[in-house]
Amino acid sequence: MDIKKLKRDAIDDDKWDKCVRQSSNGVVFAFTWYLDIACDEWEGIILNDYDAIIPLPIKQHFVINNYVALPHWIPHLGVINKNPISNDETLDLLNQVPYLNVTLTLNAHNKLPEKVAAQLKHVRYHVLDLILSLEKMEHRFLPEIKALMQLYHEKQITVIRSLNPKEYCDFLRQENDLSDKKVDTLIKLISFALRYKSAGTYAAYNVHNEMIAEAFIVKSNSCLSLINYASRSDDTELLGPKAIIYHVLKHNAESNLTFEFPFNPELGRCFCQEKHVCYQYRKGWLYFLGSLPSM
What is the pLDDT of residue 78? Predict the structure, then answer.
């Protein structure tokens, strides 16, 4: 096997993105455009002629320079591989990461040898298979969604698609406590994704035609991922965001898609019980610390 680490400027974007598109575990967060926006700096481990890749977001800290860790808008990465590989091969590739300090949440399809996996922490996120009819999906919703569905069908809450990035940003800054840097990064992600028609921005309105919530959803590799939502402070039951999710499910039921909630368990739990499990691969100081505090 030919395994090499390349700096960002040496990576072939077309071959890299082709690997992500053709891999069953090709998550949207691994595309070059997403990494370029979400990461201050990143590199890649590459197997052979981009048969498998590992994106490596690089961070700096006054305690540890040049360590690998996920930025805010990337929940998981790990090994992306076109062809099936064994658990041992997945571990071998991860062990090729040359940095002394690493903390990576792997994607849900990355499996490791049993003895190794048993020692790792893991995170879970909700996922809903949209191949089901809406009626069958509704049987799995929590009871609180029933009242929301009634409001939606009675037009007490209306959902529309296509907020422009400025509208999204204005509402987000007003109703959310994210840092300016995180908001700026999110707006760049929204602008790029909308330009290439791989995403949707949604807004929910009450009967007074006042916007009460918004959401940003990316579509990639047969998967819809809820990246962000914001709701008005008086929408304490999150009726607006829930209405948006229900609207998307209604219009995508019985499709070959999944809907994933990698950032928002408080919404995911309302619509599904199934979860993906992602292992956290760590070495160096970060094996013990888990992560470093922000500067």
Answer: 96
Low-confidence stretches of the chain (pLDDT < 50) are: 292-295
| DSSP code per residue over 181-246 | HHHHHHHHHHHHHHHTT-EEEEEEE-TTS-EEEEEEEEEETTEEEEEEEEE-TT-TT-HHHHHHHH
Structural fold of domain 141-271: Aminopeptidase (3.40.630)
Query: Distance between the two ends of the chain, CA-based, in angstroms?
Result: 39
pTM (whole model) above 0.90: yes
Domain ranges in the chain?
3-124+278-289, 141-271
* 42: its two tokens: 């990143």
Token code pair at residue 62: 């006054």
Residue 62's pLDDT is: 63
77 touches 29 (CB < 8 A): yes
